[in-house]
Design brief:
alpha/beta; Rossmann fold; N-(1-d-carboxylethyl)-l-norvaline Dehydrogenase, domain 2; globular; binds acetoacetyl-coenzyme A; binds nicotinamide-adenine-dinucleotide; NAD(P)-bd_dom_sf; mitochondrion
Length: 303
């Protein structure tokens, strides 16, 4: 959509400047796809050390994209990597970054409501009027996250998937308060960063995680019952259902701390739903620090 297609009463304008908060797994991927598609990006995290790590990860993943997109022209590939990197600035000062003018803030920090509340409270008063706030939460209520701000109409969910540069889906979560302009702008931005955007209501897990997380849990329960080994369950779902990864490979990839806290959070809120029953093997892995690929060990060993 261009400005001209919006109705005259609408304040819809395309996003040019993006602030991504959290330079971890997801935030660095979100900053990358935004920069790749020509947006000015500021990536914010708690300290320089984390930010340098994020930048190194982005550079590595941009090179992977360049290798694929410009396989016959290394010079063009280098140009793509440098141009994209130049679109990204790093900062540890979120309020100043936002105050200086940004069209969209995408939050990708830890999955804890009180930490997300603190973050959005710290920028609501200093952000320009038109600035849209979005959260990449996997499992929390977008409405609850937005509740501490005075811009509930300019607030939505932008749920990306890991690895962000590769996965083509974006879930755009529309709360009851999200305005038409905000929703249209977020859908258009999703397209601008190269994703296929779908619309979801603000329900637990939106579409993908609401279906995927219970499936991962059910696979682990199947192993716990001794119906099949986890290796065989993975083979079965790859060869029998055409999934790119089996459920145990995928759970290791997502991280058991993430999956376990999603299930426990939903169980607390919806104790009667058997799909959200906590999973013993998952809790044990978290206790032992075997969080999956990122820890070098989960169901499988990566050391
Ligand atoms: N950045 C850029 N490129 C990347 C990348 C990254 N981080 N990771 C992988 N790639 C590229 C590789 O370079 C490779 O490119 P070529 O095809 O040109 O070789 C391509 O992606 C495939 O990678 P690999 O060959 O290394 O491995 P693969 O074929 O097994 O694919 C995968 C890897 C894309 C991760 C695939 O296994 C897959 O789709 N797995 C399922 C992932 C999934 O379900 N993600 C969602 C998790 S749930 C979630 O994210 C939501 C939540 O809230 C928890
Ligand atoms: P991560 O732990 O890799 O990264 C989080 C980053 O946020 C860290 O670098 C941390 O230093 C930074 N951070 C924490 N508090 C901050 C603050 N107050 N200000 C600035 N930076 C801060 O986590 P992740 O896996 O990238 O997840 C981030 C969010 O994305 C979570 O809400 C998660 O639920 C969601 N998510 C995760 C996945 C996944 O597969 N891991 C997929 C989709 C969505």
């Amino acid at each position: 959509l261009s400005r001209g297609l919006a109705s005259s009463a609408s304040s819809f304008a395309p996003i040019k400047h993006v602030t991504v908060v959290g330079g971890g797994l997801m935030g660095s991927g979100i900053a990358q796809v935004a920069a790749q598609s020509g947006h000015e990006v500021v990536l914010v995290d708690v300290n320089e050390k984390v930010l340098e790590k994020s930048k190194a990860a982005i550079q590595k993943n941009l090179s992977r994209v360049a290798k694929k997109q410009f396989k016959d022209d290394a010079a063009k590939g280098d140009e793509f990597v440098n141009k994209s990197l130049n679109n990204i600035k790093l900062s540890t000062d979120l309020p100043s970054t936002v105050k200086n003018g940004t069209d969209l803030v995408v939050e990708a920090i830890v999955e804890k409501i009180e930490v997300k509340h603190k973050l959005f409270s710290s920028i609501d008063d200093v952000a320009p009027q038109h600035t849209i706030f979005a959260t990449n939460t996997s499992s929390l209520s977008v409405t609850e996250i937005a509740s501490v701000t005075k811009r509930k109409d300019r607030f939505g969910g932008l749920h990306f998937f890991n690895p962000v540069p590769v996965m083509k889906l974006l879930e755009v979560i529309r709360t009851k308060d999200t305005s038409d302009d905000t929703y249209t702008t977020l859908m258009a931005w999703g397209k601008a960063v190269g994703k296929t955007a779908i619309t979801c209501k603000d329900t637990p897990g939106f579409v993908v995680n609401r279906l995927l997380v219970p499936q991962l849990a059910e696979a682990i329960r199947m192993m716990e019952r001794g119906d099949a080994s986890f290796q065989d369950i993975d083979i079965a779902m790859k060869l029998g259902a055409g999934h790119p990864m089996g459920p145990f490979e995928l759970a290791d990839y997502v991280g058991h701390d993430t999956t376990n806290s999603i299930i426990e959070g939903w169980h607390q809120k919806y104790p009667d739903n058997p799909l959200f029953e906590p999973v013993k093997a998952l809790q044990k892995l978290v206790k032992e620090g075997k969080l999956g690929v990122k820890a070098g060990e989960g169901f499988y060993n990566y050391k």
